[in-house]
Amino acid sequence: MAQNASGAVGARLSPQVDSLIRAAQRGDQDAFEQLVRTYDQSVLRLAMNLLRSPEDARDVYQEAFLRVYRNLHTFRFDCSFHTWLYRIVTNICLDQLRRRKVRKEEPSVVETTDGPVDRMDAIEEDGADSDPERSMWNSELRNKIEVALEDLTPRERMVFELRHYQGLRLRNIGEMLGTSEEAAKNCLFRATQKMRSVLGDFV
Amino acid sequence: MTCDSVSELIPLYYYGELAPAEEDLLETHLAGCSACAAGLEKQRKVAAALDRRASEVSPLLLTDCRTDLMAAIAGGAPRSAGLQKGPWRLFAEAMASTFSGLGRLRQPLGATALVALGFMAAKITPGFLPGLSLPHNKNIATASLGSDDVFSTVRSVQPDRSGGVQIAFDETRRRVVDGQLSDAAIQRLLLTAAHEQDSAVRVESVDALKDRCDSSEVRDALLNVVAHDNNPGVRLKALEGLKPLAADPQVRKTLAQVLLTDDNARMRMQVADLLVAHRDDSLVGTLQTVMQREDNGYVRLKIEKALKDMNASTGTF
Q1: Could you tell me if B49 lies within 8 Å of chain A, comparing CB atoms?
Q2: Burial class of residue B267, CB neighbours in 10 A (0-12, 13-18, 19+)
């Protein structure tokens, strides 16, 4: 599974992060910038993976860190900064996903004369497959994956994203989303069931 | 453990989210049940397929985001502040908050300057955009907002002989207009917005204009965006509006140029689709040049097929 150490980074760097936060709370601009740089890559990756649009990811980034800037003085160290930051980020992303559900928007899958194509995947894998049959199979699988992910509720999508791609623990995810570990478990279970039913015959 | 209960636990087992005791029970069951073991294998395969979808963040995008954020924190609100999504609005709020230290950047003006701001703002006449007579148009509702929508940037501060101080500042006032897209004044505002610095404003205005290509002015503006806007998101949006005009010679000429010069693969993929949808022998030369330069497999495939259909050499000499 795709794992990254974003959660662990926060824990491992805790003393340094704490002093950055305190300095930023006192108005130290450099400390704030360092704090942003400690976490912003994982925030941007989360937004990109969820929204599949660099423009939207950029909006999420900007809005999230400006909210952090505005509200950092309210951070009281009663949870990890990573959790606090991700509460903000996941809220903004969930709003975007919900709006998108309402608008039925599909930002990255384009209709071409050869059927729907995920533009981002086409870019990432240019020239990767010289075998046309394999390439067609891959492109069909990619479309199936997009369909499966579209089928998830925004909350299921978020829990899946945080567990599968960001490698966070369900307990932590529950804390970020303001829900219990049990509820996060149920979301993950429903998400994987839906994806297995769509992708099951394809893998 | 029954097969039913095991199948419910497989995703959690795969993600390492079971308690140790549950994990032991499940592993004992899996060792003796080939159907459930196959279920776990399926879970692994689905997860592996999903792994391939993970997006990598381009360093360029990250740099852009950091620059934008730091500019928002260090600078003033720009002229073209987005009204809906509003990072700048958030910024303005951030500046006004009591966040110690960081809010002081825009505060040293003091009461005298605030009075001056209010006085100057009151003197602004409504027709702030040349050529637009918005307040007289009955289809448009306008709203002048409160003093917090006047942004100022101080250019110089000089003490004067009497012990006072002289301050020179630029100011920008925000107003809100509502109206229908069919309204000419709204269209003109959107055409102006399509040149704004803020790409979020450009993309929204192009999005609003894109179904209005029956106006030659809008069509020309979209062609200009497709060929010259530096943001691929804005270009892609303009391209959507031009799709119904893919048979128009002027549009095709611009699109052919875009196919040759645009550095964004998504743009070229969509432009290739549009160009090859209509047989056009005058494009053979351009398409052959594309074949020599293009490194995107999808675009090459499209162009190669179009050239073959026109019995032209595919140009891979």
Answers
A1: yes
A2: buried
Task: State how far the Cα of B147 lies from the Cα of A68, in Å rounded to an integer.
Answer: 26
The shortest CB-CB distance from A192 to any of B11, B266, B277 is to B11
- Answer whether A119 sits within 8 Å of B46, measured CB to CB: no
Helix (H, G, I), strand (E, B) or coil at A146: helix
What are phi and psi for residue A132, nearest 5 degrees? -60, -35
Q: Please report residues of B whose CB lies closer than 8 A to that of A147.
A: none
Instruction: State phi, psi for B220 to the nearest 5 degrees.
Output: -65, -40
Q: Are B166 and B113 in contact (CB under 8 A)?
A: no
Query: In this complex, is the C-beta atom of B55 within 8 Å of any C-beta atom belonging to chain A?
Result: yes
- What pLDDT score does B172 carry? 74
What CA–CA distance (Å, rounded) separates B278 from A3?
46
Tell me if B40 sits within 8 A of A196, measured CB to CB: no
A15: its two tokens: 């003393």
CA-to-CA distance for B250 and A143, rounded, in angstroms?
34
Coil, strand or helix at A107: coil
Q: What is the pLDDT of residues A63-86, one digit of tens each?
A: 999 999 989 999 999 899 999 999
Task: Give me the total of CB pairs closer than 8 Å, taking one residue from chain A and one from chain B.
Answer: 169
**Whether complex ipTM tops 0.85:** no
Chain A interface test: which of B43, B44, B50 (most A C-beta within 10 Å): B50
Any alpha helices (H) in B75-165, and if so which ranges? Answer: 87-96, 110-123
Q: How many residues does chain A have?
A: 203
Q: What pairs with residue B143 in β-bridges? A: B176
Closest chain B C-alpha to A104 CA, distance in angstroms? 16
Q: How confident is the model at residue B21 (pLDDT cuts 50, 70, 90)?
A: very high
CB contacts of B13 in chain A (<8 Å) are none
d(CA A40, CA B210): 34
How far is the C-alpha of A184 from the C-alpha of A80, rounded, in Å? Answer: 19
Judged by CB atoms closer than 8 Å, whether chains meet at A26 and B100 is answered as yes
**Exposure of A121 in the CB half-sphere (CA atoms within 13 A):** 25
Nearest to A203 among B46, B56, B58 (CB): B46
User: How far is the alpha carbon of B263 from chain A, nearest alpha carbon, in Å?
Assistant: 12
Instruction: Check CB contact under 8 Å for A199 and B46.
Output: yes
Asked if B214 and B205 count as a contact pair (C-beta separation under 8 A), the reply is no
